[in-house]
Amino acid sequence: MRMPRILYNFYERSLSKSLDAAKVPAHIGVMVDGNRRWAKQFNAPTGHGHQAGADKILEFLGWCQELGIKVVTLYMLSTDNMNRSVEELDELMGIIANTMDLLDADADISVHAMGAPELLPDYLAARLSSLTARVPARERIHVNMAIGYGGRREIVDAVRELLCDANTAGRTIMDVAESLTVEDISQFLYTRGQPDPDLVIRTSGEQRLSGFLMWQSAYSEFYFCEALWPAFRKIDFLRALRDYAGRSRRFGS
Question: Domain segments of the chain: what residues?
């Protein structure tokens, strides 16, 4: 049974007021899962689910800006997703391109690309490159768009770049091996220079990482929500933040 709008609004305001601003995560990773299943519930085309999911991303980023969250990483398209039908991928790529246009219209958002651009259509890779090159006048939120992304691939790319960099500097493989540290690899990840995610949210009830930020999420808190991504509400998000605020982070200790 759906909550009446007046009660929903009251509950949303109550949740918002209960949050301690000092305990709101600085960086949130989100696995936007469930678009296809959402569409199937209504016997709608898959593309309708992807469009609803894209609309939810824009709404979600608005919530994050309201709450002062500085960095959001969105898992939008994995390397595994590239095996879907040509028809579905074509439609999905177009929806992603339209979403980029809407992000470009917000002067307070900066965007960083994560993934393998060579896996994307030329027009989408070019659009992504143009968007990431834009410098916002007043950055309120930084958005990492993981498109054509795979966690294992990211680590392999980081190690490859590290070795190429060492070779350019005239270092041998043995030199690298003897001095290699966690920080050495971290500085070549797609998210180099950014804080690791404090909280990772996955919608749709699935409880696995699916390769998302495998290195960076070593000490992240995880929150799994039953709602499919297009149906993810602000109160679902506020509950996730409340749950996060109540945890005691140990960072492996």
Answer: 25-150+195-239
Q: What is the mean pLDDT of residues 19-41?
A: 95
CATH superfamily of 25-150+195-239: Decaprenyl diphosphate synthase-like (3.40.1180.10)
Q: How many percent of the chain have pLDDT more than 70? A: 98
Q: What mean pLDDT do residues 135-158 have?
A: 94
**Is residue 96 classed exposed, middle or buried when 0-12, 13-18 and 19+ CB atoms within 10 A define those classes?**
buried
Give the active site residues.
33, 81
How far is the CA of 31 from the CAs of 133, 199, 229, in angstroms? Answer: 24, 11, 9
The 10s digit of each residue's pLDDT in 78-116 is 999 998 999 999 999 999 999 999 999 998 999 999 999
* Per-residue confidence (pLDDT) for residue 45, from 0 to 100: 95
Q: What's the chain's average pLDDT?
A: 94
The pTM of the whole model exceeds 0.85: yes
Q: What pLDDT is recorded for position 252? A: 65
Measured distance CA(132)–CA(112) in Å, rounded: 5
CA gyration radius, the chain: 19
